[in-house]
Amino acid sequence: MKRLFRWLLVAAILAVAIAGIVFLPDLRYRKLANEYPQALAAAKAAGIPTNAEEFAPAPIPDEENAAIELKVAMELYDSDRSAISDRVNEIKKAVEDPSATVPAPTPDMVQIMNICRTAAKKPKCQFTKDWSDPINTTFPEYAPLKNFARMLDADMIIKARAGQWDIVHENALAVQKLADFSASDQVLIGGLVSVAIKSINYSSLVQIVDESNAHPRILEIIEDVCAKNQNIKPSHIFRGEAYMSMYAAEFAADKQRHKEFEEMMTGWGGMSDTSTYSSGTLIDKLKDLFSRSTDEETPRPRSFTARRAQATTLVQLTTEMYQPILQGDLRWEEAAKSLDYENRINNMQPSVENELAVYIFPMFDQAFLSFRVSELRAQLLETAVEIHRYHAAKGRFPKTGDIVLPTDPFSGKDLLLKSSATGFQLYSVGANGKDDGGIYKNPVSNRDIDLVYQFRMPDTVFSGR
Fold first, then answer.
1. How would DSSP label each residue in 401-445?
2. Burial (Cβ within 10 Å: 0-12, 13-18, ≥19) of residue 31
3. Within a 10 A sphere around the Cβ of 438, how many other Cβ atoms?
């Protein structure tokens, strides 16, 4: 009897030990996992889109939707993408040198540019997207739109040399509208493509000013482009980023779909193919997280309870970070302070429940800088027009104090102006917040440069440090 009792006692101890091994780790996450419904309700109340119905924009009538025309242009582009891209590159390279012979655009390119000019007259653009599955949502239109902008941009320089200012004007406005259309999806990558297209436009306008000796018509065109410029708001872009986070949390919190989510990570290409932009690098990060093996230093949790706890943390952090941005009309520098991404993530204790939240959020620093620089370049162009007009009226370029200069968002002080008999430099101190003397090219450090509008001012004047 005693022997049987001892065996039963050993069996009971083993059973308790096994139960502890199996169930005790889940107890650590259970309370947080059970808070998921409350976290989701709080996110909804804060205006965070939690499903496709809440996020997807209302349909646009065809008569207002530029996507109708742009799809036709994209079909032409796709019919001979490689040849068209090569010709665009050849033309772009040639127009940089006023003495070079510029290759003629192909018939398809001419037709594409005409379509873009027509599409630009429509107020909005909405390409068909399945927002119920944002992980597999791609944005194949971004690469063509950027190339369409490059076509129009090169054509704008060619037409300016021929004195065809009406077409220059039409092209400049069309490129600006392509930038606006690229940002219509409310996702970060769309905003960054928009900024890239605006940069193409601004660079060409500056080149035309220089080549035409600040012809009055190009100054008028710049004024019109800047007046119609639509700066991208943080509340617009981060609505999509918040939805992506909520969608990932939904998978992790669902007992059936959480396995589906892990399977979906297999083979995901993310942003590796820039010809078909996808919905973000966050998916690549998730793929890495879910593919970890158990022998790694921080293995992925295998229990549903732990995964649901992760989902709760992700929803809570998404709400905390994005609510002030989505509900306010913040500028980019204000949004950066509100997100405080780096400090939030760095101060989170390393743990399984925090791990998904740490992985899901992309690095925003470069994005914030890109949007701020884009706004500043438009401001530099507007002010440069005023300086050129001052020169036309008085026969000299203004010095500091002769005109009112806008505030430099990177320093909080006035933009800097240096002028001579041959030209001027108008510039911002840039991301490092330091006046580097008007240097806009530095082979040592890209951070030690200023954001410069320069007209006929030799590089040697301000090349030293």
1. TTBPPPBPTTTSSBPEEEE-SS-EEEEE-TTTTS--TT----SS-
2. exposed
3. 21
The residues, ordered by sequence, that sit 6+ positions from 258 with a Cβ below 8 Å of its Cβ are 251, 252, 304, 307, 308
Cβ atoms 48, 242 nearer than 8 A:
yes
Give the tens place of pLDDT for each residue, 407-432. Answer: 998 888 999 999 988 899 999 988 88
Give 214-261 as a DSSP string: S-HHHHHHHHHHHHH--PPPHHHHHHHHHHHHHHHHHHHH-TTHHHHH
Q: Are 352 and 306 in contact (CB under 8 A)?
A: yes
Is the torsion defined by CA of 319, 322, 324, 327 positive or negative? negative
Q: Are 311 and 255 in contact (CB under 8 A)?
A: no
Residues in the chain: 465
- For residues 374 and 256, the model is more confident at 374
The backbone torsions φ and ψ at residue 272, rounded to the nearest 5 degrees and listed phi first, read -65, -30
Q: Return the residue matching tokens 């039963």.
A: 8
Beta bridge partners of 139: 277
Residue 263 CA to residue 185 CA, distance in Å, equals 27
Task: Report residue 176 as tokens.
Answer: 């600006």
**Contact yes or no for 322/328 (Cβ under 8 A):** no
∠ at Cα 199 (196, 201), nearest 5°?
115
Structure tokens at 424: 């001027």
The alpha carbon of residue 362 and the mean position of all alpha carbons in its chain are separated, in whole angstroms, by 11
For residues 335 and 229, give the distance between their C-alpha atoms in angstroms, rounded to a whole number: 20
DSSP secondary structure code for residue 334 in this structure: H
φ and ψ at residue 425, rounded to 5 degrees: -125, 130
Q: How far apart are CA 247 and CA 243, in angstroms?
A: 6
Best CA proximity match to 408, nearest among 425, 430, 385, 388:
430
pLDDT tens digits for range 175-209? 999 999 999 988 888 999 999 999 999 999 999 99
Task: Map tokens 């002028």 to a residue.
Answer: 419
Q: What is the mean pLDDT of the chain?
A: 81
- Strand 424-428 relative to strand 138-139, pairing: unpaired
Type of residue numbered 440:
Y
Categorize the per-residue pLDDT at 321 as very low, low, confident or very high, splitting at 50, 70 and 90: confident
DSSP 285: H
* 27, HSE (Cβ side, Cα atoms, 13 Å): 6
